[in-house]
Protein: Cadmium-induced protein CadI
Amino acid sequence: MKRFHIALAVRDLDESIQDYSARLGQPPTAVVPGAYAMWRTDLLNFSINPSASRAGELRHVGFEDDAAPEYSSSTDCNGLMWEAFSAKEQDERIVSTYGVAVRHA
Structure:
């Protein structure tokens, strides 16, 4: 499975979880209360982190790709960071960066 990844900074995590759950038609796949939320849809891997001073800013983009041998990142010609990772790698990074997530379907 290959999904496009978008990571955004948000003003309020709980309010954003409600808003984006309605927009995406499903609850987040994983939530670390106060720190992080992520949705996996058929085509999209979408994550948010609270950062009031950067609310609405694109943090980075990339691809969740189960064929990715390991996490990698690079910066494009416009200064935007692109990441490539497997779902397993992302799940491990969530725990190491934010703590254990509450998992949904």
